[in-house]
Amino acid sequence: MTPRRFKPKLRMTGWFDPDVMSRSAIMLATANIFGRHSDSRLIEALGNQPQAHFDYADAPGEFTFDYVADLGDGWHGTYAVAEALARPELTVSAPDGATVTTRRGSVLVFGGDLVYPYPSRERYERQTEMPYAQAFGEHGARPDVYAIPGNHDWFDSLVAFSRCLCRPERGFAGCRTRQTRSYFALRLPHDWWLLGVDLQLGADLDEPQVRYFQAVAREMPAEAQVVLCVPEPQWIYETIYPRHSAYQLPTIEQLQRDVLGRPAAMIVTGDLHYYRRHAAPDGTPKVIAGGGGAFLHPTHAPKVRELRDGSVEQTCYPDPRTSRALGWRNLLFPLINPRAAWLVAAVYALTAWLASSRLSASDLESPGQALHSALLAALREPVYGIWLIAFVGGLLFFTDTHSRVYRLIGGGLHAVAHLLAAFLLAWLAQRATVEVLGLPFASAPQLLLAGLGVFLGGALVGPLLIGVYLFVSLHVFGRHSNEAFSALRIGDYKHWLRFVIDGAGTLTVHAIAIDRVGRRRRPASAPRLVDRFVVRARRRT
After folding, report:
1. Domain that holds residue 438
2. Torsion angle of alpha carbons 430, 433, 439, 443, nearest 10°?
3. DSSP class of 149
4. Of 63, 123, 278, 317, whose CB is crowded by the most CB atoms within 10 A?
5. How far apart are alpha carbons 167 and 154 in whole angstroms?
6. Which of 410, 377, 369 is nearest to 392 (CA)?
7. Cα separation of 158 and 95, whole Å?
8. What's 111's DSSP letter?
9. Are 127 and 73 spatial neighbours (Cβ–Cβ below 8 Å)?
10. What is the number of structural domains in the chain?
């Protein structure tokens, strides 16, 4: 089914826009509270027809399939990847100057998070299907499409995802879809298997999914080799947050040991929006490839060169030097996120209003005296005191949640900086309206002009403080990588994986990147090869 025509979405998601922040927070909270306790995968599995594995073992000659994760954000990035992988042949240059030519895949696998910032029928069609339908139509591409959901796909308990990807009679962007559940198994030539796993917001595997993969495992010959496709890189999170229990779930290891009865030859995921390959001590590649269209994540921080299991980083894209340079854009936060200014300005103005309503003209003689009087007012006046507690609590909640110490210290200092800025702006506005303009203190014109001054000053100073906080947090402490780079709305540095199984049964993986995506007046850069490796066979234990 070809989706309805929509005007392309030209801009990346503004994650600090008030409407996006509020709605995303509500949907995430709902998904975490209800999604974990009412597993709709179970309902979906019971309600659908039985799903077996999908067989491509007899495909003649060289077999190619593509893997894309984290797409459906800005139109340009999503379309750039779709257009490049839809070309009948793609010749790319390697870092050593050599050229590699591959054919487009006959299968396309989406590795999770197909739309941002939150799922809906319209967003899937407008932001994901439409760019792929346009790219496929231009090049006559018709791959079979499979997908697993990521955390953003789960925000609506998988309703929109299931409608878009799990209804074979509907199709996707004019292509065939065959799965009826949120997970699948593909049998590929030369006894290679691709398994797509749904972990539902990091939870354990549900029972129908376990039974499905157990049945698949019984059909695998002893020499079968497995590529495991999962929705999040647990190996990265358990290294970054070693004391956080949510990232210590051994789900992937249990799947290999207890369900499949064999180790995976490769594990691939998205969720983090960059390319990074680690090699385990036994050579097994663990690959993150989340460059399908969403905003870029940093590669220079936090440090994950060596993982807890001994895996060592082989390559990453973009390189840490480029990532570090891009991070300086946080100092331009007010310009990149203009809509965030109005929310910050309103909070500053309300804080100043509550404080000044308790002060007299004699309290404003000096900044020190005004601050002392404002603090006393916070202790004496319940409404003002509760507002300040809510203000500080909100910024503590915003602070990186994986360290209590950092949350208290970093979040506390961030809150104090904003309160001092709001207080200083209020004091300056009061002095300017009374002494410079000569307006009577506490008169209606004086209060309105002072409030307007605080509002406009807050719109400038508040976002700048947020940008400085994110910059320091990331570059000095390795925290807030998600918030710091989502604020930058970087639509470039996209990539995807192309898997090629040759006639001898060798599986070669190509990581293909587009440094600069095309826009109205700027052409896209040529795709290039940033990594290439052969997946070694693993022996069954």
Report:
1. 338-484
2. -40
3. -
4. 278
5. 17
6. 410
7. 40
8. -
9. yes
10. 2
